[in-house]
Amino acid sequence: MRQSGYETWHEGKLGNTAREIHKRFDHSKYLEDDKCRTSGEHGKQCVDDAIVFLKSRQTDKPFFMYLAFEGPHDPRVAAEHYLQQYDRARIPLPKNFLPSIRSTTGK
Predict the structure, then answer these.
(1) Which tens digits make up the pLDDT trace of 74-85?
(2) Whole-prediction pTM
(3) Which of 11, 22, 45, 54 has the maximal Cβ count within 10 Å?
């Protein structure tokens, strides 16, 4: 994309191990996976940084943006202000709901 005249942006989790490809982006940043996953605000850092890029990017050419969000992966943590919005005891869960991926892998 960059070779075709696009300004390119990548931000994402470290689990995306194609680092040689990511070096080809004009802008490339990795998230601190564990910190982001346990912050209670999945995606916030990635989205906030993307907004800054969109507001400051070069406007004389097109752009390509690749975001690799850290969620939804265990641990699934929500900030307290989200938890207070709902009575979790009254939310029906699907029959195939598992509290953790570990429920299927035994790890």
Answers:
(1) 777 889 999 999
(2) 0.73
(3) 11
At CB < 8 A and 24+ separation, what contacts does 29-35 make? 31/70, 33/70
Domain assignments of the chain as residue spans, ordered by start? 2-105
Q: How would you write the chain as a 3-class SS string?
A: CHHHCCEEEEEECCCCCCHHHHCCCCEEEECCHHHHHCCCCCCHHHHHHHHHHHHHCCCCCCEEEEEECCCCCCCCCCCHHHHCCCCHHHCCCCCCCCCCCHHHHCC
Reference 7, options 70, 56, 69; nearest CA is 56
Residue 36 has pLDDT above 90, yes or no: no
